[in-house]
Specification:
single chain, about 400 residues, alpha/beta, Rossmann fold, formyl-coa transferase, domain 3, 2 domains, three-stranded antiparallel sheet, 18 helices, 13 strands, about 15% strand, elongated
Length: about 400
């Protein structure tokens, strides 16, 4: 188990969460050096341990777990037991950041709310991720990322107008919320350290994190009463930006800046459009979206993806194929940037996992170890809190850990 040299080395994070939003936020901090202690239920631990593909396939652990819990220490604690609550209070007293994604009010019922924990640790920053936030009429409702994507507006504008709104194939609402939690935690930590401030609560509602990504929909509705609708693969009001069919598949082209549009039109032999002064800026192109898209489609339909990309890349036009994960494993850009790394799993087999991002030149993040076995670090962490071996044995006998 390697010692961290990342930019968050020395920052202590206590994770009280399961599944995606809270654990992803803590994972991000752990990748950049924070010491993350993850509290898990002794009876099975985080349910994500059994989500999606398992290794081995029968009775194994989720391959997702290897990534989501990397660099974390697993400590099993029964939060309903008095001894378990005392362990959490001791850990929180030493922590810089607590991350939790329980339903609002649960920690308070357990006697582990922010007021209790911060009374002994005034500098504590608590990141609270929930479906609807800690206040408001919906605070007590259960809320998952899929619901947040719907309420936050993402689902309404995703897909084709003649079909029901689809979901994106990953838990994007949870992940967006997690990143907001990390940003909020680091801002609160900076305020504490640089401005002499005290700790505080970072209240992240999943639907609000999605809502924060919605670009111009609010002022467009506020001023014009315009409700943005589903537009398929195109980006409404930004032309041309779409998915276009080639002879052997589809590519995405972003030709929406003014000079790029002109280069794109010249590259496909449509000098008439490229040199048309009424199309020189986006507001002139929007009314003629179909004409521009049709010109691109006509040029692409007889060309393969490779042929089209060769021309577009030479013309300095942003364009690319639509990658599957198999493409990522062999792509020279992914390889050059080392975005797929290999790490030994518990049985010695190497597994592939995504490398840490973003890339910091002086203090890069890293994978120090993969997601731990349930309770792997319980004894180590409790000993660091001053518990003696016989006390730990008694806690185990009492089912507190």
């Amino acid at each position: 188990m390697s010692v961290s040299t990342g930019p968050l080395a020395g920052v202590k994070v206590l994770e009280l969460g399961t599944l995606i939003a809270g654990p992803f936020a803590a994972r991000f901090m752990g990748e950049f050096g924070a010491d993350v202690i993850k509290i898990e239920d002794p009876n099975g631990g985080d349910p994500l341990r059994k989500w999606r593909k398992l290794y081995p396939e029968v009775g194994g652990t989720s391959l997702w777990w290897a990534v989501q819990a990397r660099n974390k220490k697993s400590v099993t604690v029964n939060l309903k037991s008095p001894e378990g609550k005392e362990i959490v209070r001791r850990l929180a007293k030493q922590a810089d950041i607590v991350v939790e994604n329980f339903r609002p009010g649960l920690l308070e019922k357990l006697g582990l709310g922010y007021e209790v924990l911060s009374a002994e640790n005034p500098g504590l920053v608590m990141v609270r991720l929930s479906g609807y936030g800690q206040t408001g009429p919906y605070r007590d409702r259960p809320g998952f990322g899929a619901i947040a994507e719907s309420m936050g507006g993402l689902r309404h504008i995703t897909g084709y107008p003649d079909l029901p709104p689809p979901r994106i194939g990953i838990s994007i609402g949870d992940s967006i919320a997690a990143l907001h939690g990390v940003i909020g935690a680091l801002m609160a930590l900076h305020h504490r350290q640089a401005n002499g401030g005290k700790g505080q609560v970072v209240d992240v509602a999943l639907y609000e994190a999605v809502f924060n990504m919605m670009e111009s929909v609010v002022p467009e509705y506020g001023v014009y009463g315009m409700i943005r609708e589903r537009t398929g693969a195109s980006l409404p009001g930004i032309v041309p930006s779409n998915t276009y069919p080639c002879r052997d598949g589809s590519i995405v082209i972003g030709g929406n800046s003014d000079p790029i549009f002109k280069r794109l039109m010249l590259a496909i032999g449509r000098e008439d459009l490229g040199n048309d002064p009424t199309l020189a800026s986006n507001d002139g192109r929007v009314p003629r979206t179909r004409e521009i898209d049709d010109a691109i489609r006509v040029w692409l339909c007889t060309r393969s993806i490779d042929e089209a990309l060769a021309v577009l890349n030479a013309a300095d036009v942003p364009a690319g194929r639509i990658y599957s994960v198999a493409d990522m494993f062999t792509d020279p850009q992914y390889i050059a940037r080392q975005m797929i790394q290999h790490f030994p799993w518990q049985d010695g087999r190497e597994i592939a996992l995504p490398n840490v991002t973003p890339k910091l030149s002086e203090t890069p993040g890293e994978t120090r170890w993969l997601g731990p076995q349930l309770g792997e670090h319980t004894d180590e962490v409790l000993q660091s809190l001053g518990y003696e071996p016989d006390e730990i044995a008694q806690l185990r006998a009492n089912k507190a850990i």
